[in-house]
Each structure stands twice: as structure tokens, then as C-alpha cells.
């Protein structure tokens, strides 16, 4: 019988550089801020007036004379593959990944005791990054953060000509600024052949425990907004989604993360409220949470991410 050789760790493609095109009206303040930031940080970019934008990206129709700002370093981050690489690295460094264990109880003693459906753990310090379940874990610890949990419709739109919106055709990731009440973003066709991902950066209030219930999926106003956007700006896509999936956002009132210690239990650190844009910043967020958990001086000013900025805010402010 032939012996199968271990090929070693698989090299996974976790990123794809496509460029990120930001669309908006010339006077859009957010577009101006982004351009100033890219210039200040020395990031290669290109401002595209309407005529140049039409020539560079003929698949995009300018419904109102929009201009473009192209960040050439932008692209796609494949979350599933990135997580697999991260988990492999954790194991190689002697860590343990425990999947499928629901946290039942956290006792804020020293050491902290974490009870799950499988076993009990003790630790000197604990980092909680529980996404939409954050408040469910924090309430018994005497803390409720002003978090809003949203169900997001993740939509894919069929190309009228297969392959016309792929990376090989120069189609970029894009972000629409000021073209709807919330951002609209899109990725080239790749995840599903012949389908382009175009999504709305907002959704409907939902309990994470009921995210798969049909009633939690009934409000599709965001899909209607996307249909109008696709019809007006991406005429070579079918104006109705071919596939709709779901994900959860956990939003803060100001859209900024929460990276801080529990106000009463300094050995419990919280990372929450990533508002739909946290994954791509996971390396630096992980570094900050580690520093907080080890009582090290943070590498960055965490003032914008402190819990104290919400003092006096209640659920009514969401």
C-alpha cells in the first residue's frame, strides 16, 4: 500500500488585489476626507473625473455625474481562508481552538471562570469578542453596551454577459458614498461564477438568536435600494438578486469599535461593536486587546474606542 505523504500547511490565497473605487459626487465631504487621508499616508491613488471614470470603468454608469477615487492597494480579503490560516497559526504556537462550545456563564472572580456547554475554564484575564451576543454575556456582569444588532441581506447579482465584471476584466471593488442613505459596496464576480456581490451597509434590527427565522427576514427595503442602484449604475447586471445570504452587524452609535476593559473588572477585556468593518483590521485589534489583557501600555490612543464615550446613552439613542 502506498504511503501518503503529508504535504504540510496549505498555502491559501487570503487576499486579492483589485483596487478599490470610491464613487460619489465631487463635493461629497467623505470622499474629500478619504482623498486627504490617502494623500497624507502616502497611499497610491488616483482621482477620476466623470469622463475619465467612464473610460476606465465602462461597466459603471454615472447616473448623476459622479467622480471616482481609486485606491490601487484595495481588494478582497477572504474571511474563511484568513480564519483558517489564523487558526493554524494558533495551533502551531501551542494554542487551542475550541469550536462548538456555547458560553453559559462568566464568573468575574480572580481567576475568571468561564463555563461552557462542554467544560469550565479558568484564566487570569479574559477577552470577550462575542459579536451580536456581546450584551448577552455582559448583562450578568453588570454592563450593557449601546449596541444595535442588525440582520444584513448579502446579495449577489447575475451578469448579463458572464465574466464581464471579473478581476481579469479590470472590474474593481467599489464603495458608493452618498448615493443612498448608507454606503453601497461591491466586489468583482468570483465567489460565485457569473455573480457580482453588491450589498447595502445597513440592515434590519434582529435578535441574533432568531437570525434564521423567516419573520426576521421580511423587511427588504435595503434590497429595493440595491435594485435601484444596480439598475442605474450597473446596467450589465440583472436588477434583481440571484442569491441572498445573511450576516449580522453589531453597530455602535458612532460606528467606531469598542476596545476597552470592563469598568468594574479590569481583567475582563471587551472587543465589540465592529459595525460591519472590523474583520480587515483584526491584526491590529488583536494586538490592542492582547495589550489590554496583559496590562501593557497600548500601542495606540484608545480614546475613540473607550466605553466611557457612551456615558449617559441609553437604548433610545440607537
Note the total helix count: 6
Low-confidence stretches: 1-10, 313-318
Q: Major beta sheet, specifics?
A: 9 strands, mixed
Structural class, please?
Answer: alpha+beta
Share of helical residues = 10-25%
From the N-terminal CA to the C-terminal CA, the straight-line distance is 64 Å
Number of strands: 17
SSE string, helices as H and strands as E: EEHEHEEHEEEEHEEEEEHEEEH
Radius of gyration, in angstroms, nearest whole number: 22 Å
Beta-strand residue percentage = 25-35%
- Anisotropy-based shape: globular
Residue-averaged pLDDT: 92
Write up what this structure looks like:
By secondary structure, this protein is an alpha+beta fold. It is 20% helix and 26% strand. It is built from six helices and 17 strands. The protein has helices spanning 29-40, 50-56, 79-92, 134-138, 221-233, 282-293, and strands at residues 15-17, 20-24, 45-48, 67-71, 75-77, 103-107, 112-116, 120-123, 126-128, 148-158, 173-176, 184-187, 195-200, 204-205, 243-251, 258-261, 268-272. Strands 2, 3, 4, 10, 11, 12, 13, 14 and 15 form a nine-stranded mixed β-sheet that branches. Strand 11 and strand 12 (184-187) form a beta hairpin. It is globular, with a radius of gyration of 22 Å. The N and C termini lie far apart (64 Å). Residues 1-10 and 313-318 have low confidence and may be disordered.
